[in-house]
Design goal:
Length: 627
Amino acid sequence: MSLYRVQRRRTLQSPKHLWSGGAIAPRQGWVRTLCSLAVAALLLCGGVGKAFAVEARLDAPGSDGDLRDRLRAASATLSASARGETGVQPLLAAALSDYRTLVQVLYDQGYFSPVVQIRMDGREAASIQLLNPPRSIDQIAITVRPGRQFTFGRAEIAPLPSPQEVDIPEAFASGRTATTAVLRDAANAGVENWRYAGHPQADVGGQSITANHIEARLNASLRLAPGPRLRFGQLKLASASAVRPDAIQRIAGFPTGEVFHPDLLSQSATRLRRTGSFASVTVRPEERANPDGTLDYVATIEDLPPRRLTFGAEISSSDGLEVSGTWTHRNLFGGAERLRFETRLSGIGSANDLDGRIAVRLDRPAAFGPDDSQFYLLEAEKLDEEHYTATQGYGAFGVRRVYSDKLFGEAALGFASTLAEDVYGKRRFKFLLGRVRVEYDGRDSSLSATSGYYLDARVLPFIGVDGTKSGVQLRFDGRAYRSLGGSDRIVLAGRMQLGSVIGPSVSEVSPTLLFYSGGAGSVRGQEFQSLGVPAAGGISGGRGYLALSGEIRARVAEKITLVGFYDVGFVDSESFVSSDSARHAGAGVGLRYDVTGIGAIRLDLAYPVNGDTEDGLQFYIGIGQAF
């Protein structure tokens, strides 16, 4: 059965009936010539030929509302009318294309006996002579009679490998609604099964599809051609790159000699992309396999500009203005090494002195394997916070392991020195510091998530030097997102932050390792780091920390979202919070304006609802969601 059995008669006029190049035939006479010139002049002057909107409608008797909506959304004719199109040729072209488009929509929904009529001022569009169209069109009426919805009679696909790694759609079965989408999905699933079984050249070898219009049955038989089972050959480079060829091969980790598997192929391309050195990476197979049963692949790579500069800013009424910037070199030594400089200056305009940070990090991809990179880190930071000041330096080296597109882990070892002054006086802390971090990002978007969750767990063991106490700091950040009502218009977002210092007491550990609550990153509506624990007649950071945040995000326009939120924070002198821990809370409303490629521009207005504070209303402006 042909899936597009729509017959149209198209009669073209003989050339003798046409004008040639716009010239007027001599037999028209001088009177007709003058009339034509007068009409043209009036058109140019706007005196005649005022355009009126073309009335276009689509009726689908016997169909449900969902099908009618699909048909109307797909119609080029309705779209042209909605734009105010009045030209005969564009409207006729849209109508002629709608025959195939509307039939395809019906086939995709299981209607294989449709009748589509498109009448332009009472004339069927398919019968209008293209080279002699009407002078104008006032009304277009589209009538779609879908007929009965077909079901599968026979639904077969063979041969299939055993075992199967990709399930054949359950909808591809006798008695189920027959649609072209199900046919495509079943064919694709069959081919993927053979590819997962090591047959990269698998394809659909043939098909037999027949329709019984009397019984509204569709019989489908799909034959697969698996092709030979092959192993990976060599990875060839089709284009030059600033990254050395040997580095590209090392980073890709192409599985030469292994039996073909789609996941192994996609891993090689993903490894190249995540270096950040390439704008695009495509890997395609050669047309023919090698005599030894291997199949070579060709990688086409496009480099990104080697240098990148970024800026960021955030302002709040309590913290002042914070500005940050990064400079990145994506290919420092020709092996896709990434050198990154980071700077941050905060507290601009606040009651405290300025805070600043400078850091440099060098990453070497595939240092120990295609998924293992090495990094070196140096940073210096000056902090002037509400309850302490500190100047510290830190140097470390470590490794990073990428397990998947969503999961990675890092481990680093370094040395840190901190000169701090807080409620306990001025002290210097020196320690060997380890950092272990695991991050899982299962969000649908890192800029503005509507579903999924994010987890970030960190363990920082520290060994004291020159009298500094030893211990361990634990940190956890978890975020979850869920859409309501089957759309992304209303999203619930939640966040939980945990912190704990185990080992030394509050007075024996650097204040940079303790926890405070308040501000944009924890409890909005409360002053930055305003909540700690009473100590020595003042306030110190706590060893235990918990912050909970909840948001309701409602998209009221294409780029505008309104947000309601509530934050609460706990701090304790012990390693874990309890019901007796100091607490405060804040709540408010926010506005988000989406900017393509950047994320949301954020404005939050928050008010303290629990805790000792007289600061009143706080506002926060930044780029990106609060979490």
